[in-house]
Amino acid sequence: MKKIINLTPFIILIFLILINSYQIMESIRFSFSLCINNLFPSLIPFMLISNILINYNFIDDLSDILKIVMTKLFKVNKNCSFAFIMSILSGSPSNAKYLKDLKDNNLIDDIDIQKSLNFCHFTNPIFIIGTIGITFLNNKKLGLIILISHFTSSFIIGLLNKTRKNIKKIGLSIEKNQNTFISILKDSINSTIDTLFLILGVITTCIIITTIINNIFNINNNYKFLFGLLEITQGLKYLSLSNLNTNIKTIISSFLISFGGFCIHAQVFSILNNKKIRYIPYLISRIIHGILSSIITCFLIYII
Question: Which residues touch 113 (CB under 8 Å, ≥6 apart)?
């Protein structure tokens, strides 16, 4: 009986997939198109380069430059500066990949990962200005406002992130790395491919769920942006098609981008699945990030 009860949700899910097969197939095509045409091209170069830089001890030079910022302001190990800079350039969930690589090379500890995740949550600047500002909102200035709000609110969270008193000093184990460039490149490619397929799988799953929910409840077009709480790109697409005021769309977009959606949350914690990281502090940070970003966006809209 217990096995039947446990299997019931999966049986229902299979049934829903069958009766909504056409819409789900279209959703899967959308998720593949999104990843192949937009997400993967922006992530692959950064993921490959980051792994190579870590193996060639680039972290030591960068961490010395940003030591005061990371240790005094953000209260994390100076080596987190690498994940911080790379996350700004490429966005989430690649921040989790960078932090994982640093931990695997014994450059940071789990506390550093936990604290860094709170404020190293960024969305690719090109995506914000190009896709959201120009394509969805048809206004580059609004995209720039969202970008400023998104980054500023994340830095504020980092400045408030001061509960740690002592920062553990961790040695640079990568100095012992004697691998050839070809070997390092091969490992980087394998690691990047594994991460990209994981991201694709999570995004596809979330989009299937939103498709099923939409077909069951037939949600009004003006409220479909709420799907962005689960999967951000679909939510932003529906938001752009709604009849809401442009300023309201901008403020909501700012919240959704900074919150990230549970799909990105799942990607982050799937990448960090063997690390001792708690989800609740991360979730609270994302909610605060979204609220702060929305407030700053609202302020900037009416003063610029």
Answer: 99, 100, 103, 272, 275, 277
